[in-house]
Amino acid sequence: MSTVEDTADTQAIAEELDRQAQLLESAPPQEILRWAVERYRAGGISLACSFGAQSVACIDMLHQMGLLSAVEVFYLDTGVLFPETHQTRLRIQERYGFFAVRVAPELSWEDQQIEYRGHLYQRAREGVDHCCHIRKVEPQRKYLQGKAAWITGMRRAHGRTRAELPVVGWDAVNGMAKINPMALVDDAALWGYIKANDVPYNPLYDQGYGSIGCNTPVCTKPGDARSGRWSGLGKTECGIHLDGKVIKSLDASGL
């Protein structure tokens, strides 16, 4: 197939997903998840799980609908996740009876310090961006190759870089459908669901963390929503959600 034909096919798929997003705009997360699994299970569909509040809620929803076994849950092990995040992973796996696929960078955390002669996160914005790329962006893109779709826990309430997040869309970078079933869910509804269904969650939320990433001095601090992520660096996204269309950092980041 020629490049022109490939481009035309991709455009047609993207337009179809845009139409589907409009149809599902007011649908509950469960309906969006059911549609996605039924549509993409044959080609392979994965759930990106940070073991944050929205991720564990998605897992519970899939479990309650009997669809969790049709989805491959994966997590990015950067080598510097909080101990509480790993503990939450173990609790979630035990509760729902599955094992999440560990996706990790080629360089261990220790080898990265040797290769780059110290911590990249100590080298201002450029160093932090590079660290995110090595430990999150590259491993995830490699893992997603060959999949038909992936599910995220992204929400519009996370901030202005995600304010126009569609519930379904085309991920131009990874060349597949991207499903955001939690896009319209606000904090009250999210935590109401978690409490009502007794879903295990990361205890760091109870210590004032609004968003939980890597356990380094600059990546994750207590704060509302995503205000504690890369605080003071003008950075809003690690890079794994850059899709060339909707999710764009509002700063000068190259990731």
Structure commentary:
The chain is an alpha/beta fold. The protein has one domain: Rossmann fold (3-Layer(aba) Sandwich), CATH 3.40.50.620. It has 7 helices and 6 strands, in the order ααβαβαβααβββα. It has a 6-stranded mixed β-sheet with strand order 3-2-1-4-6-5. β1, α3 (53-64) and β2 (72-76) form a beta-alpha-beta unit. The chain is globular. Residues 1-5, 226-239 and 244-255 have low confidence and may be disordered.
Could you say which overall geometry the principal axes of the C-alpha atoms support? Answer: globular
Return residue spans where pLDDT drops below 50 for at least 5 consecutive residues: 1-5, 226-239, 244-255
Q: How many helical elements?
A: 7
Placed side by side, the strands forming the largest sheet appear as: 3-2-1-4-6-5
Biggest sheet statistics: 6 strands, mixed
Level-2 CATH architecture: 3-Layer(aba) Sandwich
What is the string of helix and strand elements? HHEHEHEHHEEEH
Secondary-structure content class: alpha/beta
For the record, give the distance between the C-alpha atoms at the N and C termini, rounded to a whole number: 31 Å
The percent range for strand residues is 5-15%
Helix content: 25-40%
The CATH homologous superfamily? HUPs
CATH class: Alpha Beta
- The CATH topology is given as Rossmann fold
Which value, in Å, is the CA radius of gyration?
A: 18 Å
Strand segment tally: 6
The structural domain count equals 1
Give the rounded overall mean pLDDT: 83
